[in-house]
Design goal:
globular; two-stranded antiparallel ribbon; mainly beta
Amino acid sequence: MKFIKFTFLALFSIAFAGANAQETTEVKKSEPVFTIKAEFRTIGEYRDGYKGILADSIMNEKMNPNTVIRNRARIILESSSDKFDSKFSFQDVRTHGMTGTAVNGASTLSINEAWGQYKFNDKLGLRIGRQELNYNDGRLLSRKDYNDYGTSHDALILKCENKEAKRKIDAGFAATGFDQNFYTSATLSDKFYKTMGLFFLEQGFGEHKASVIYLIEERENTTNFRTYAKQTLGVVPELSFGSFKANLGFYKQFGSDNKTVTRTNADATVTKSTNGEKMTGMMYYALLKYDTEKLKAGLGYDMYSGEKFDEDQTDLKNKAFTVSSDMWALHAHHGWMDYYVAKNAGLGTAQTKFMTRGLTDMHFFGEFGTKNSIYLAGHMLGYAQEDKYTDVKADKTTADVTYKKVGTEIDLALTHKFDKGMIFKLGYSIMLPGAELLDNIDQTYETAGFFGLDSEVDPKTAQWLYFTFSFKPTLFTTKK
């Protein structure tokens, strides 16, 4: 059934593109173009709370502030002709100090992109190979450029674009495997999809546009080695009224995940287990923007559905909107300190319940300037559903505490553009956690004896200072 659904979507795209091809006019042939580009990017960080609210304790050095410098270098080869386009992007990614200059260290070389695209005509093409996928504002598929390695997919994408009709259609497929074993072809882990199907349609309406995106991810259950398909359908209208713009989005999940779980009802009298829960989560957002050359400002709200701590979950339905970390980018949307990207060692589940309780984010941003600019953003973060923890009093009595507020993150950045493709950025972010979240973290540390059974834990305000230097020159270009 899943194969039939995806095949139908692919055939629809081919038929649509074929109809457009009948309108194709003769294109004047041009000489092929070959270009060599480079990218040098260095990020230096002073981490005193990045990805984790630290504890003021000398008993664990991992929780003390640390300085990290990361570097990414790329060589990009691009060619374009009337019938064939291609791109090869080689990258070296390393943290300063991870490999010595006088001794051999771990290999840091990899391929970011390596694809070829055949053009059937001026509207229809087929791209095959390793490629970055980025649609709309990266809510569902993103290149995750802030990530050192980025994110690319070994995929086949049928691409159709009719500029006169302001229409784009992409239909694609990808499959991953650990090796070439004909029968197992297991994935590296359940964190990576085994197969992925994509359909994207964007239609312009004057200054406005709207898109529909459908994504199916088949992931393997490491217990029974069966695959389960999570599906996400999104509708994204983007409205433009001169300098004022409105970005809206609604995403719904269905299908099933690949997790083996046990669910118990509220009074713990009924327990059920399953391999693969039914997905019922949803996500929506609204962003109002004012966008000019010198001033950009916006106000928005995001909501990811979650599950209540006390609800009956024996219906074996997952009500939380789940994010696939190998595909989606949260860094650009919910604060640069990445509190909702991955779990962090030592923090238990007190801070990282986004995947269960859901997320709300009331946020604003403002950016002023062109060559020199200043950026300020604020995120008022909370859970979509209440969380609960047990507060242990000094007299050893206990009380249950429920809360939604996570905290407020403030992001500040100063940017200087030396020239086209040469940028320096200096940033500072601070997280002001809610009182209940701090107390929950405090209780989690002490109960688990993370800093010793008798140690007092004093969680402190998290902050993060960093700089980014990015240089993207064009080294060579020619027409043959």
